[in-house]
Amino acid sequence: MNFFSRQPRFSRLITLGVGMAMVTYAGSLAMGALVLDDSRPPGGPNKKLKEEGKKLFGPEAERTNPMRDESTESASWCIVLGTARGPDAAKIAGIALNNIQREGKLPEAYVVQRGEAWLVALGHFTAPDSDEAKSELARVRATSVQGSLPYADAFLAAPNPKAMLGNKPEFSLVAARAQHGERAKYTLQVGYYGREELAEPSEADLKESRTLAEVAAAKLRQEGEVAFYFHGPRRSMVTVGVFDETDADPAAGIQSKRLRETRERHPYNLYNGAGVRVRSGNKEAMVRSRLVGIPESESKGATEEKPEQKQDNRSFHERMRGVR
Questions:
Q1: Where among 141, 159, 177 does a domain terminate?
Q2: 238 with 107, same domain?
Q3: How many CA atoms lie less than 13 Å away from 259 in the CB half-sphere?
Q4: pLDDT-based confidence at residue 198 (cuts at 50, 70, 90)
Q5: DSSP code of 170?
Q6: Domain membership of residue 252 as a residue range
Q7: Number of H helices and number of E strands within the chain?
Q8: Is 19 left (phi over 0), alpha (psi -120 to 50) or beta?
C-alpha cells in the first residue's frame, strides 16, 4: 500500500494504491474492516417509483448498475469526497465509504459510478449555486475529525451528461441529431413535467418528473409520433417532430404544412399532463405548444432554445403572465 500526502492547510490528501486501483480522498481516516455498504443512503430513489420504472422499462434497467441506481445521483450535482479508478475501484471506494461513514462523521455519504470512476459522494443538488449546495459544501469542508479538516478539498461535481439520456436514450432529444442528421434544428414542445411551485424541488420530485416525461414520450411513440423527452436541471419536457430551417422561419412567421399539421394535433403545451390557462388583460387562453431548439450535440448539452423568442430573457413565471 503506497501513501502520498500533501498538507493543504489542516488536511491531508491521501492516495491509496491497491492493485491497479487508486482512490484519492480528502483525509487520513484509519482503514477499518472491509465492509461494502450496498444499502441505499437516505434521500435515495423512491422505492415505489423504482418499481414503476421496472414495470415500464423492464428488468434490464435494474441490471445496468448492480451496485447503485445512477439515474438520481448522476443527474444531479454532488459533493465529491473521493474518487477511485481501475479494476478494483468499486472495492476501494467501498473501503473509503466505510471509513467515512463510520469514523468520518458523514454517515450520509454514498458511492456512485460515473463512467470509469467510482465516486464517494454526498448530497443531491439541482444547481451548484443553490443555498442547499453552498451550505452543505461549507458544512462538509468544516467537518473536523480528530482535530483535522479531512474534507477541506471537497468540491461540487457537475451532473453526468449521459445520465440525462434517461432510461430510453433512443427517445432522448439529446440523440435527435444523431438519428435525424445535422439539419434537424427544431422540435415542438408539447408538454413539461416538474414542480414549478417549488424553489428547490427535491431529487425525488425530479426523478418522478423524468419518469413521467419518458412515459409520455414512449406513449406518443406508440401513437405514431416522433416524440422525445429532454431532462433539464429542474424539469423535463416532451416534444414531437423534427424540423429544419425549411419548416420554420420564426422571423418571417412562416411554417411548413407538416409543422402546421403537427401543431393542429398538439395545440397545447401541457404541464404535468394538464392544460394551463394564462391571463392577458381580461382574456384567458391556453398555453400553446412551441418550437424549441434541438441540442447540437451531447457534449454541448441541451438548452431550451426558443427560436420564436430568442431575445426573451424573462423567467418562467414572468413569461407565464402573458399569452404566447
A1: 159
A2: no
A3: 22
A4: confident
A5: G
A6: 162-319
A7: 9, 16
A8: left
Residue 161 confidence (pLDDT): 59
pLDDT tens-digit series, residues 78-133: 898 988 888 888 999 999 999 999 999 999 999 988 767 788 999 988 767 778 88
Statement to judge: residues 137 and 48 lie in one domain: yes
Which residues have C-beta within 8 Å of that of residue 194, sequence separation ≥ 6? Answer: 201, 205, 206, 209, 234, 235, 236, 272
Q: State the amino acid at position 306 in one-letter form.
A: K
Residue at which a domain ends, from 104, 126, 159:
159
d(CA 14, CA 3): 6
In a domain? residue 324:
no
Say whether both 171 and 255 belong to one domain. Answer: yes
Dump strand ranges (E) for 5-67. Answer: 13-18, 21-26
Task: Give this prediction's pTM.
Answer: 0.49
28 and 88 belong to one structural domain: yes
Residues 91, 206 share a domain = no
Residue type, 124: H
Is residue 35 situated within a structural domain?
Answer: yes
Q: How many domains does the chain have?
A: 2
Residues 6+ apart with CB under 8 A from 241: 187, 188, 225, 226, 258, 259, 262
Question: Is there a single domain that holds both residue 62 and residue 177?
Answer: no
According to the model, what pLDDT value does residue 317 have? 36
249 and 110 both lie in a single domain: no
Name the residue type at position 176.
Answer: A
- Exposed, middle or buried: residue 315 (CB in 10 Å: 0-12, 13-18, 19+)? exposed
Q: Look up residue 178 and give its amino acid.
A: A
What is the spatial distance between Cα 308 and Cα 61, in angstroms, rounded to a whole number?
37
Tell me the three cell numbers of residue 283. Answer: 382574456
Q: Which residue, chain included where needed, has cell 443527474?
A: 75
CA dist., res. 26 & res. 151, Å (int): 5
Helices (H), 113-271: 131-141, 176-180, 203-222, 257-265
